[in-house]
Every structure is written in C-alpha cells, then in structure tokens.
Amino acid sequence: MNDKGTWEFGTRQVVYGAIGAALYGVLSWASNFVPLPAAGNVTFRPAVAVLIFFAVAYGPWVGFLAGIIGNTLGDALSGWGFYWNWSLGNGLMGLVAGLAAAAISDFRAQKDIIKAVGWGIAGVAVGMLFASLTEMFVGGIDLNTALVGYFTPAFIGNTVVTAILVPILMIAFAAVASRRGR
Amino acid sequence: MLVTWKYRPRNTFIQSLDPRTRLIFMFSIILALTIPEIWDYRLILAIFAIALTLYLMARIEWKDVRRIWLFIFILVFFIVGLNGLLSGRGGPSSVTNLPSPIIFNVPIKIPFTDIGWDVPITVSKAWFAITQVTRMMTMTLLALPIPYTTDPNVFGTAFKRMGAGDKFAFTMDLAFRFLPTFARDFIITMDAQRARGYEMDKLKGGIPERLRKLSPFIIPVVMQSTVTGEEVIDAMDLRAFGTKPRTWLKVLTYAPRDYVILGLGVAIFIACCTLKWGFGIGGYFVPDFFSNWILGL
C-alpha cells in the first residue's frame, strides 16, 4: 500500500484532484436545488460519494486534494465562509479512503467494492472526527457537543451515502474504464 | 440556474487587500484566541469589535447572507450556547470547578420513566455561554466574508505565494476553472433526465432508495469528467507539466494597507500571548456587574 504508485504525485493526481474537487464543490452547491433526504438533524450529501470514489479510483493524494479543495469550493459557492478545519477534515476523509486504491484491481468485484466502502467509511470517521474535535479548539465547544452535535450526524449521513452510492459509481466506472482501455 | 460565485467586485477597503492578508489575519485571530486560551470577555469583546468593523467594511448585502446567518445563529445559539449554559464545558475548568451561585435548576427527565435530575444553571455557566457565543461569532465574522470578497481566480496564486507547492496551487487553480463546466454538465444532465420523465422533485421510498435514485444525475457527470481528465492529462504531459518550477500569470503584491492589517493581526496575537503568559490576564472570570445583575433579577 505504500508503494510508489499509491503515493505518486504527478500530472494525473493534479488533474484528477482538481476534477474531484470541482465535482465535490458543484454537487455540494447543487444540494441547494436538489431535494435531498434527511432524518432528524442528519442530512445526506451525495457529493461525499464522489469524493470517496475519486479517492478509491485515483489514490490518497487525489482524495486529499479533492476533499480539501472541494470543500473550500463548495463553501465558497454556497457562501458559508472559509473553515480550514472542516476543509482539512474533508481532505483527510479522501486521503484515508484513497488508501484502498492499491488494494483494488476490479471495480466490479464484490470484494473490491466492500474494501472500497470499508476504507471510505474509515475515511469518513477519521475526517469528520478530526473536523469535529478541532472545533473544540477553534470554537471552544466541549467534547460532548463535538461528538453528539457535530460528529455523529456527519458520520451517519456520510456513511449511508458512501455505502449506497460508491458501489454504483464503481460499477459505472468499470464500464467506462474498460471502454477506454486505461 | 447558473453556477454563480458569491464574489462581486466592490469598491471597498476590504476588497483592495491582498487575499493573503485576509487569510493570514484570520489565522492570526484564531491562533490569538486559541493558543493562549483567551476567555476574558474584555479581550474577546475588543477582538469581536475589530472583526465586526472589518465585516461591516466589506459591505456585503444582507439579502446575500440572510440565510447563512440564520443557520449560524441556530448553530451558535441553540447548539453551542445552550450546551455551554447547561454543561459549562468546552472552556476552562474554572467554569464548573469554582463555586458559583445557582440562578435556577433545569429539570431533566427521561421520557416514559421516572428517572430524572436537576441541572443547576449557575452564574458562571451563564456568563460562559455568553462568552463562548461571542468568541464563535468573532471567528465567523472573519470567515464568512471571504467568499464574498475574494476573487475566486486568485485563490491558487494566493496559496502558492503563501508557500504551497506548485502542484497543490495548480490543482486549486484548475479546480476553479473546471467548476463552471461541471456545473453546466450537471444542469444539462438534470434537464435531459427530466425530459425522459424523471421526476426529481418527487423521489419516493426510504432514504437508501431515494439516494439510489439520485444516481441518474450523478453518474453521467462523474463518468464524463473521468474521460475529460485523460484528455487534460495528455495535454499537460505534452507541455511537460511538472518538469520545472512554474511561473504564474497573476502577480500579487502587498500594498502598505496590507502591512497595516498584517501588523494588526500579529500584534493581536503577540498581545494575547503576552497578557496571558506574562501578566496572567486573559483567563476566565465572571465580572461583578453580571453577577449583580443576574442575581438581582
């Protein structure tokens, strides 16, 4: 998993990092127009599945860049401001999910899809935990608010989206990749 | 429905500042409040006044930020403020450790059981909730105007000039350029699916089913973007991207006003550290006027 291929940072990573970030930003922005399902204070953001998919398909650097820049773009488009810890949390979410890239060879295979979803959920846990806990230092909230008010809704919503949409994206990608031969 | 940036050119002092100045100033304030753990209302109020002044100087129209402010108020007052009032946690231990008069008790009961207890609301907790809300609002006042007052095209250059690597800065720059294209692709896809009879506004079923039904909008855009990526990689490789350090078209230069704001940010950071660690000023305490007022009610 720590071979050069996984951690290589070249033109491919720059381009797919930018594409992943732009898609993450656009889909976050589109959430304003598309009615999304919600339960209680948990909202389900399909954009997260795109971030996890890019990480799984192109590696940890792409996941990191797509998360950190994509969240900044989404916030900029929607007008939320600039919150460095949430952007970095999203970057970590992509970075951890991207560790699955080296272990995946067939995007249609059930075991590879399970690996991708598993790493994706691990990424969601790490990224959202980082963002929620740093809010204790940045915003001065207590551990209880960080875990119950911030982390839990974000983790549940993003996990459900990852488990449902990432397999669909992977199967669609397998068809596209086989047609292009890359 | 076109993708539109919140940024609009305005002839204001804030927008004449270098974007690096804005980001560095914001980080200086965050560090000034968090590293020396400032909870003294006098210092927080002074910094809040500076942040509010800068926010008002940005002259952002209320209609643009009304919805965002509503959400922030709910988050800050109800989630953070109420939690601070009930628990008193999240700040210095002196909020709950030092003896403080009880204002009233809030009875909490587990529904459908007889189990319950009283949560005492002390003067210290009440003042802490006010202080914490003010502290969070200070940071929000600095963070919120950035997308409204910073040209999106200079983010890549700004991060490069702040020390980020060429590849990170270029990724950022490229992402900003791709964004309108993908937004357009998304809108075309949405219209195409609607023309085929897909009723986006009436997604039925449970949450998994409704999420799954969003895939006809997401899959075409994402898959097309992966194909676009290969073409862009080829074009960049042909131009030998990444073989040498890059030059940047946009040039950012600090003006005297930038040095003033940067100096102010650094001065606030140094002042907070010096007061806290050198003179013991900046820790949490409840002012007498608040205790007298609230106990007199």
List keywords for this structure.
heterodimer, A: 182 residues, mainly alpha, Arp2/3 complex 21 kDa subunit ARPC3, two-stranded antiparallel sheet, 7 helices, globular, B: 297 residues, 2 domains, two-stranded antiparallel ribbon, 12 helices, 2 strands
Strand percentage of chain A: under 5%
Q: In percent terms, what proportion of residues of chain B is strand?
A: 5-15%
Instruction: Please tally the helical runs of chain A, counting DSSP H or I stretches of 4 or more residues.
Output: 7
Number of domains of chain B: 2
Q: Summarize the main sheet of chain A.
A: 2 strands, antiparallel
Distance between the termini of chain B: 53 Å
**Low-confidence regions of chain B:** none
Rg of chain B, please? 25 Å
Largest interface, counted with CB-CB under 8 A?
A: A-B, 69 and 80 residues
For this entry, what is the oligomeric state of its chains?
heterodimer
- What structural category characterises the helix and strand content of chain A? mainly alpha
Category from helices, strands and their pairing of chain B: mainly alpha
**Overall spatial form of chain B:** globular
Number of domains of chain A: 1
Q: How would you characterize the overall build of this protein?
A:
The complex is a heterodimer of chains A (about 180) and B (about 300). Chain A is mainly alpha-helical and about 180 residues long. Chain A contains 7 helices and 2 strands; from the N terminus they run ααββααααα. Chain A has a single domain, classed as Arp2/3 complex 21 kDa subunit ARPC3 (Orthogonal Bundle). Chain A has helices at about 5, 10-30, 45-60, 60-80, 85-100, 110-140, 145-180, and strands at about 40, 40-45. In chain A, strand 1 (about 40) and strand 2 (about 40-45) form a beta hairpin. Chain A is globular. The model of chain A has no long low-confidence stretch (mean pLDDT about 85). Chain B has helices spanning about 20-35, 40-55, 60-85, 95, 125-145, 145-150, 155-160, 165-195, 205-210, 215-240, 255-280, 290-295, and strands at about 100-110, 115-120. The radius of gyration of chain B is 25 Å and the shape is globular. Chain B starts with 18 loop residues before the first helix and ends with a helix. The model of chain B has no long low-confidence stretch (mean pLDDT about 90).
